[in-house]
Write a structure and sequence with these properties.
mainly alpha, 2 domains, two-stranded antiparallel sheet, 14 helices
Length: 300
C-alpha cells in the first residue's frame, strides 16, 4: 500500500470510526424527541382527515397511494377510528420515551414506524420536511440499535453522528440543486414570486419590492444550500459561522414565510455538528443533570 493510500485509509477510519463523545447525540435525542411530540400533535387534524373515521383515504387506497417500496400500518386500518387513535397514542408515548431515554431502542423503532405510517399514505398537507422526519427517525433507530443512545454511554464510534451530518449536508445540497431546475431561481427572480403569494408570505410585498433585494435573497439561498453549508460546515474553524448563519437563515424564513416543518427541524439537526465541549452542549448537559436530580427516575 502506498503512503497516499495508507493516509486515505487512516483518514477514512478516523472520520467514521474514531471515538466521539456521546453527549452531543444524547442532547440531539432529547431535543428531537421533544420536538417530535409537538410535530405529531400539530399533524393530528391532517392525519385524522386522511386516516381516521370517514377519512379521505380508504384502506384499499393506501397501497395505491404509497406505490412500490412504501408501507404503512394503515394499509389495512385506514378509516378505523380506534386503530388510528391507538397508533397516534403510541406515537406520542414513544416520542416521549425516546426523549426521556426510556427503552430507547423500542421507542426509536416505534417513532420510525409511526412516522412512516403517517406520512406515506398522505395525499395532501405534507412536504419535504415530513420526509426528513422519517429519515431522521430511521437514523436514530440505527444509532439506538447500535447502543449509541444508551444513557450510560460516555463515548461512541463516530459513524452514527457522521450519518446525521452527511444527511443534513445532502438535504441542503439537493434542496438547492432542485431549485436550479426552475428558471425563476437561476434568473434571480424566485423570491419575487414567493412573496407575492399570501399562502407563502407573511409580509407585504411592498416592503420587499426591490430587484436588488430579490436577487440577493434568491442567489443567497442558492449559495447557502448548494455551496456554503455542504462544503464549509466540514471546516471546523468555520463551522460556528456556518451554523450561526444557518440559524439566521431559518429564523428569517420563519419570520417572512410560512414554511413550517423544514424551518423548525433543520436548526435542531445542527446539534449533530456541535462538539461535546461547546457551550450549547455543556449548557444542555448541565440542565439535564439538574433535571435528573429534581425529577429522579420512575424506576430503578
Amino acid at each position: 500500500m502506498t503512503p497516499w493510500n495508507s493516509h486515505a485509509v487512516t483518514a477514512w477510519s478516523q472520520f467514521f470510526f474514531g471515538t466521539h463523545s456521546a453527549t452531543s447525540l444524547q442532547v440531539f435525542r432529547v431535543i428531537f424527541g421533544g420536538w417530535l411530540i409537538t410535530y405529531y400533535l400539530r399533524c393530528y387534524e391532517t392525519l385524522h382527515l386522511h386516516l381516521g373515521h370517514d377519512g379521505i383515504v380508504t384502506a384499499a387506497e393506501v397501497f395505491e397511494l404509497m406505490g412500490t417500496g412504501r408501507w404503512s400500518v394503515f394499509a389495512g386500518l385506514a378509516g378505523n377510528e380506534t386503530a388510528f387513535n391507538m397508533v397516534f397514542l403510541v406515537a406520542i408515548l414513544a416520542a416521549a420515551a425516546f426523549s426521556a431515554g426510556w427503552h430507547v431502542r423500542v421507542a426509536a423503532a416505534l417513532t420510525w414506524v409511526a412516522s412512516l405510517s403517517f406520512v406515506n399514505p398522505l395525499v395532501s398537507g405534507t412536504n419535504s420536511g415530513d420526509e426528513i422526519v422519517t429519515i431522521l427517525t430511521f437514523l436514530f433507530l440505527l444509532a439506538a440499535v447500535a447502543g449509541h443512545l444508551d444513557t450510560g454511554r460516555v463515548t461512541i464510534p463516530f459513524w452514527s453522528v457522521r450519518l446525521f451530518q452527511i444527511q443534513i449536508a445532502m438535504v441542503y445540497f439537493f434542496s438547492g440543486w432542485l431549485k436550479t431546475a426552475a428558471p425563476d431561481w437561476y434568473r434571480g427572480e424566485a423570491m419575487h414570486f414567493v412573496f407575492q403569494q399570501p399562502i407563502w408570505s407573511r409580509v407585504s410585498w411592498d416592503a420587499l419590492d426591490s430587484p436588488l433585494l430579490v436577487g440577493l435573497m434568491t442567489y443567497g439561498t442558492l449559495a447557502f444550500e448548494l455551496v456554503l453549508f455542504p462544503s464549509l460546515v466540514w471546516i471546523r474553524p468555520l463551522r460556528p459561522l456556518v451554523l450561526g448563519f444557518g440559524v439566521l437563515f431559518h429564523v428569517t424564513i420563519a419570520v417572512t414565510m410560512k414554511v413550517f416543518v423544514f424551518g423548525e427541524l433543520m436548526p435542531i439537526t445542527y446539534i449533530a455538528f456541535l462538539p461535546s465541549d461547546s457551550r450549547a452542549i455543556r449548557a444542555a448537559r448541565d440542565w439535564g443533570v439538574r433535571l435528573r436530580v429534581t425529577c429522579p427516575p420512575l424506576t430503578r
